[in-house]
Amino acid sequence: MTGVESVLVVGAGAMGSQIALVAALAGCDVALHDVDVDVLARAERQLRDRMAQQIVKGRRTPEEVGQAFARLRFAAELDPVTDVDLVIEAVVEKVDVKRQLFADLDRRCPERTVLASNSSSFVPSAMASATMRPDRFCNLHFFNPALVMRCVEVVRGPATSEATMAAAVGFVERIGKQPVVLDREIPGFVANRILNAVRDEAIRLLEGGYATVEAIDTACRTALGYPMGPFELMDLTGIDIGYLTKQARYDETGDPADAPSATVRMLVAAGHLGRKTGRGFYTYENDEQGDD
To answer: Main EC class of this protein (predicted)?
Structure first.
């Protein structure tokens, strides 16, 4: 495989829909699939709204946005859209769901197709073993918001071939992102392992009564130069995503240090998941995430 021209993104949530648009803006033919037609409709509406804002701000031209949407299909059925060079999975962070999906994609897609997961919770081997093509499997971990964040972690599994890694890195570079290659798999990869250590310490400080959410975020911004504090970032990316990541790690290791904190468990149980629900560690007037 020498290059990626056609892409299927499975899962039309915030991450999947933005990954699909990034690829379409870079000139790829893209299908965005979700079994829920309402989720697909919302994804299209939100992407068009974002691009309209970009046009108003002079960051995109109407021509390039129109061409991108002409290359982007919204598909509720998989069969017509599986003849692609690359599949990127962006569904719920549950390994059984992902494994079932990849087993299905393995049967449907041509031999040339590379299968990739956007997950940082599960390493390639945890999902590739559900397929007959572990040599054509890797993780492509985008960061939220995918339209803005440049880093994409490209993670090699034990059986991932050099050709697959070259195709994956080439795709990341083509769409204008910065590939960060991991030659061995490890849960959380690079950025999130470092970030999770900061988040865990921030929550320990909060639960210990040492400082407020606002004070901890302010210290990280003004003393450490972070663009946003750890609690602001958890609200942006989704508290449930962090919860599922930690829970999956705890299920694997049994180490209490890997378990979600009491505070995060309480917020998830209450449905306070951050910006997307209007309330998390902070309260928001709406659930729109900016892309500046």
So the answer is: oxidoreductase
Strand-pair partners of 140: 154
Per-residue model confidence as pLDDT tens digits over 74-83: 999 999 999 9
pLDDT in tens, 52-98: 999 999 999 999 999 999 999 999 999 999 999 999 999 998 899 99
Residues shown for the chain? 292
| Alpha carbons 233 and 239: distance in angstroms, whole number | 9
Q: Would you kindly state where each structural domain of the chain is located, as residue ranges?
A: 6-182, 191-277
Longest dimension (CA), the chain: 56
Enter the CATH code of domain 191-277: 1.10.1040.10
Distance between CA atoms of 47 and 72, rounded to whole angstroms? 11
Q: What is the set of active-site residues?
A: 120, 141, 153, 192
SS3 7: strand
Rg (CA), the chain: 19
User: CA 78, CA 64: separation in Å to the nearest integer?
Assistant: 27
* CA geometry: angle 246, 18, 250, nearest 5 deg: 5
To the nearest 10°, the Cα dihedral for 97, 242, 136, 15?
Answer: 90
Are 46 and 21 spatial neighbours (Cβ–Cβ below 8 Å)? no
What is the dihedral sign for C-alpha 4, 185, 121, 133? Answer: positive
| Rounded to 5°, angle at Cα 86 from 94 and 236 | 45
pTM recorded for the entire structure: 0.85
Q: Tokens for 135?
A: 């040599």
Classify domain 6-182 at the CATH topology level.
Answer: Rossmann fold (3.40.50)
Tokens of 246: 């930690």
